[in-house]
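Researcher: I need the complex structure. Ligand is pseudouridine-5'-monophosphate. Inputs:
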Amino acid sequence: MPPQSSVLALSDEVRDALEQRRPVVALESTIIAHGLPRPRNLRVGEELEALVRAGGAAPATVAVLDGVPRIGLDKAQLERVAGDNTVRKLGHRDLAPALATGASGATTVSATAFLAARAGLRVFATGGLGGVHRRWTETQDESADLGLLARTRISVVCAGVKSILDVPATLQRLETLGVGILGYRTERFPGFYLSSSGEPVDWTVHTPEEVAGVMEAQDALDGPESALLVANPVPEAEQLDPALHDRVLAEALEECRERGITGQAVTPFLLDFLVRATGGASLEANLAAVRGNVRLAARIAAAWSAR
Ligand code: PSU
Ligand code: MN
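Model: Output:
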């Protein structure tokens, strides 16, 4: 079993899988608590865990409850994350204060990747990463996801970065930070709600085994402990209509600016605005992307533990 930090609480399912070197997939909880409307969010949380199990891996949904960082939640704990209004949003910098004060919070990509890697997990599935926000020159708003992934050895299956962001600037930052990106069966970086952001990717792979091979090479090189992004597009048939996407996103960004929304509130506000303004179509595209990422992550975790 890989070395672990002693403050972490692992579910029995995750502990058993790690001990027996069976595949495990980490899942974040911010998407459940703050990224999806209730009560659908709880059903989605349960569905994602079921998809991981159907793929032969153990699901490890990560959250902090009463000051305890949990890797794998039971039913009651997942219900709390989905339904309790006092559950905060925790990036990795928030973990120490949350532990010390006994707080409860859902973990973003940065906090999930941090905790999962310390538990010895190597594969993580999410929807879209955080990144550089538009109007960065005014706000300097860049998600803590990027900096953390530059120094954490974990593979993150995502549908690119959220399209509410400045995608080219985010890709540039990932290059500067040295975070590797593999397009999964695509030569274009995915656009979260859209199958393509229009930006190219430098490397394309076609199978989970190829991804596991790149992970092994990362370890063999023994370089900086950076992540690997597996960029997996939402199927074209399930993407949001691109014209609708562009129109509604412009309205969302305008409203965000007019209301002076900043900091951690920006991403949940924009995602929620899009759900309402598209009559739920953005939610369906978001969920299709996450489901595809979770399925692929289970296959990558299986290929990784077979090595
Ligand atoms: N992907 C989704 N929905 C989400 C998020 C990602 O499909 O809600 C969350 C992730 O937890 C990500 C966070 O880490 O949004 C980024 O927030 P911020 O921009 O405040 O760093
Ligand atoms: Mn931010």
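Model: Summary of the prediction. The chain has one domain: 9-305.
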